[in-house]
Amino acid sequence: MSINELPKELSHDKLIDIYKKMLLIREFEQRITKDAGRIKSPLVHTYTGEEAIAVGACAAINDDDYITSTHRGHGHFIAKGGEINSLMAEIYGKEVGICKGRGGSMHVADFSKNMLGANGIVGAGPPLALGVALASKMRNEGKVVLTFFGDGAANQGMLHESMNLAVIWKLPVIFVLENNMYGWSTSVNYSSAIKNLSLRAQGYGMKGITINGNDVIEVYRSVKEAVDLARKGGGPTLIECKTYRWQGQTTMDPDKYRSQEEKEEWRKKCPIEAFKVKLIRGEIIDQAIIQEIEEDTVAQIEFSVKFSKKSPKPDSSTVLDDIYKNPMNLGGN
Ligand SMILES: Cc1ncc(C[n+]2csc(CCOP(=O)(O)OP(=O)(O)O)c2C)c(N)n1
Ligand SMILES: [Mg+2]
User: Fold this and answer.
1) Which residue, 102, 45, 43, 97, is CA-closest to 69?
2) pLDDT per residue over 230-246, tens digit each?
3) Most CB contacts within 10 A, which of 84, 207, 256, 323?
4) Atom of ligand 1 minimally distant from the CA of 154
5) Domain residue extents for the chain
6) Which residues contact 160 (CB under 8 A, 6 or more apart)?
7) CA 126, CA 159: separation in Å to the nearest integer?
8) How far is ligand 2, taken at its centre, from the CA of residue 158, in Å?
9) First-residue to last-residue Cα distance in the chain
10) Nearest CA-CA partner of 150 in 180, 170, 125
11) CATH architecture of 3-318
């Protein structure tokens, strides 16, 4: 494999940044998994095994473009440039968390990065993305919106209403379907009669493609093409990324509904290992750089854990802050 197989427009530094972000997501979540019993945030969903999708997709957009996330949102947050101390502190429920410890794992958002939020309601991201894309179009801002959602969400009515409206209004939305083969314990083979969910785009007159979601470069290239089309006023694209979640649905899930063979088969298709091989063959990194990146990643995460543990919880007197405009007068305006 030669460097030509890596996109020419991606600089040496950008390729390393992609690798670092994938590794940061992986190590961040493995660290949370270790502490799962002590973390107060209810239902922590890890993105382990799916890192190439968020990182590849976010590499194809600008800092001022938008994303909407899912209940499995840490990877999207980090991929969009979110800072890990405030993410970790949020998951630990601390005042210095990105949402002041009120949101927890399933509701992380960073408006300063145009990361518009994880979402506990399956399928709720796409309609929000639609509104943001409509605003961008009406203001002539030229910004695009990536909306991530799962194979389970692919069966939600609001996703289909969103896809239809996005096409007829030619909105700059890219629908990024993370098909990890399961919606909780339900196999996609049971919940859908078609093999490739991207086929559904045809019903709305939209381009739809199915790609290898474990290949960060394939994700980048596909999203880039869709983004270029959307910026030119060509409307939305549906990109189905086939992948697999390595852990249970949540860190509390005993995960008895999937066979050991299936899990092992997918672990062999690790997106980070696959990209590492490409980078080594392309002479972008070597063993010394890999070790340096790994050590730095672990150090960043350990710092974020220490920072989170020693930071104070929100004061109980602030429990109604940011919920009601006037907490002492609930009936007022
Ligand atoms: C509207 C709604 N229905 C059901 C749930 C419960 N629920 C949480 S995650 C999940 C599975 C979602 O599967 P998928 O969209 O494939 O995303 P994945 O978890 O695989 O990333 C379900 C059913 C929910 N949170 N919201
Ligand atoms: Mg799924």
Assistant:
1) 45
2) 999 999 999 999 999 99
3) 84
4) 15
5) 3-318
6) 200, 204
7) 6
8) 17
9) 63
10) 180
11) 3-Layer(aba) Sandwich (3.40)
